[in-house]
Amino acid sequence: MHGLNGSQHRREESVVIGFVGGGSRDWAEKLMNLLALTEEFGGTVRLYDLDYESARTNAELGRKIQRQEAAVGDWSYEAVETLEAALDGADFVVCSTQDPPSETFAHDLDVPQEYGLHQTVGDTVGPGGTFRALRSIPQYREIAAAVREHCPDAWVFNFTNPMTVCTRTLYEEYPDINAVGICHEVYHVQEWLADLAAEHLDIDEPAYEEVDVTVKGVNHFTWIDEATLGGRDLFEAVDAELATRDPPSYEPGDPAIADMSVYGTNHEVTLDLYRRYGILPAAGDRHLVEFVPWYLDPVEAPADIHRWGIKLTPSSHRVESWPEAMAEREAILSGEEPVDISHPGEEMVDLMTALLGHGAVKTNVNVPNQGQCPDLPEGAVVETNALLTEDSLTPLTAGTLPAPVRSLVETHVTNQETLVEAGFAGDLDLAFRAFRNEPLVTLDPADIEALFADLVEAERDYLDAYDIAGADVLH
C-alpha cells in the first residue's frame, strides 16, 4: 500500500502554517498552545477568516502566548485578509471552519426537532450532518483549489465536521492533495481503556498513548477489534466493566445526567453496541447514537436520552457559546484573565513534527481508502491508523469489519459519497436521496420531504451553490 508523500524540501527553519478559519474559538488556541511548547521547529502562522476581526483577535492572542515565560517555541502570528495570502507557500494548512451557529447550526437542530427528530450533536450525520455537509462542500472545494494554486505540496489538516465529507471534498477537487482528517474521538476511547485497565487489570496509571488499538470505519463511527497494553488484551477490562453494568443504567431526568456537561458521556452506548456486535465502537456516545436509529428514535423529550448517560446539545448552547468564547479571549487579552499555556491533549503538532522528519507517529487519521479497509469502497474516506514519517503518511491495513457492522457503516459511506456528488453538481434532488436514506430520519415520506424543504428555506443564504429553483423535491 502506498502512502501520501509531500515535498522533500521543507524550510524547516521557518515553517509557514496557513490557518483557514483562523478566527476559530477552539482549535486556534489549541494550536497556539501546542506550538508554544514545541522546540523542534518554529515559523509563522497566518490566520485567515471571513470574520477578519476574529482572526486579528486570535493573532493578538498568539503573540501574547508567545510572550509568556513558559513558551519555548519561536512563532509569529499575523491575520491576513485573503485565502490566497494565508496559503501562499505554506508548508501546512489547518482547516477549522464553521458558519455562524445562529444562522445555521441552530436550524440544523431545531427544525428537525419540530418533526420529532432529536440530535445529540448534529454535525456529522442525520439531518444536521447532511445540511452541514451541503454548506461545507463548496467551501472545501475552494480551499482545495487554493491549495492546488498556492501551496500544492502542503500538508492539509482538516478538523472540520462532517470530517469525512470535508476531507473527501478536498480530494475530489484536488486529487493530489496531501490532506488528513484529524479527530480526537479515538484518543478519548484510548483514555477510557487505560482507565479500565487500571481499574480491572491492576495496571498502574497507564497513559492513553500506551494503549495500542486497531481502528477501522468512518469518522465518529469507527470500531476497535484489537486493544492491548503491554501485550495485555484490554477486552478483558471491557468485559469486566460490562459485567458491572446493564445499559441503559439511568432514568429520564436522572440528576446525575441532568447536571453534567452537555459533552459528558458514561460509555453506556459504547458498551451496549459492544454487547450487540462483539466489537468496540471508538467514538463518543453522543456521536454514536446518531448513526443508528434505535437510541434517538424513541426520544420524545430531551430528558429521554438521559437513559443512555448522555444529553442533547441544545441549539441555545451552540449559539450562546459563540460570543462567550470570544469574550473569554478578550478577557485574556485585556489582562483580566491569565494566559494558561498547557497541553490540550491533541496530536496535530506531533503529526507536523513527524512529517518534518523528527521521528515517527502512529495514530488514527481520515484519508481515502487505498485498501486499509478492504471491505469498504476504494476512494471513500475511512478512518484507520497510519504511520507518519518525514514527508510521508502510510495508512495501516486494519482488516475487515464484522458483516452486521459493515452493513451499518456502508449505509453512511454511501450517503457521504452521494452528498459529495450532489455538492459538486449543485443537485438538491440528489442530496435529498442521501437525506432520505439517513437512519436517523425516521419519518413518513411526506414529512421527510417537508423537513428537507424547511431546512433548505431556513438556510437558503448558505446554499447558493445549489439549484434551488430547479429542485423537484422542493416543488
Automatic annotation (TrEMBL):
Question: Keywords of this protein's UniProt record, alphabetized?
Answer: Carbohydrate metabolism, Glycosidase, Hydrolase, Manganese, Metal-binding, NAD
Its domain of life?
A: Archaea
Q: What positions does the domain Glycosyl hydrolase family 4 C-terminal occupy?
A: 215-441
Q: What InterPro entries does this protein map onto?
A: GH4_Enzyme_sf, Glyco_hydro_4, Glyco_hydro_4_C, Lactate_DH/Glyco_Ohase_4_C, NAD(P)-bd_dom_sf
Cofactor(s) this protein requires: Mn(2+); NAD(+)
GO terms for biological process, alphabetical: carbohydrate metabolic process
MF terms in GO: hydrolase activity, hydrolyzing O-glycosyl compounds; metal ion binding; oxidoreductase activity, acting on the CH-OH group of donors, NAD or NADP as acceptor
Family from the record: Belongs to the glycosyl hydrolase 4 family.
- Report the PANTHER family cross-referenced here: 6-PHOSPHO-BETA-GLUCOSIDASE-RELATED, ALPHA-GALACTURONIDASE
Record's protein name: Glycoside hydrolase family 4
Question: Which species is listed as the source?
Answer: Halosimplex carlsbadense 2-9-1
Upper taxonomic classification of the species? Archaea, Methanobacteriati, Methanobacteriota, Stenosarchaea group, Halobacteria
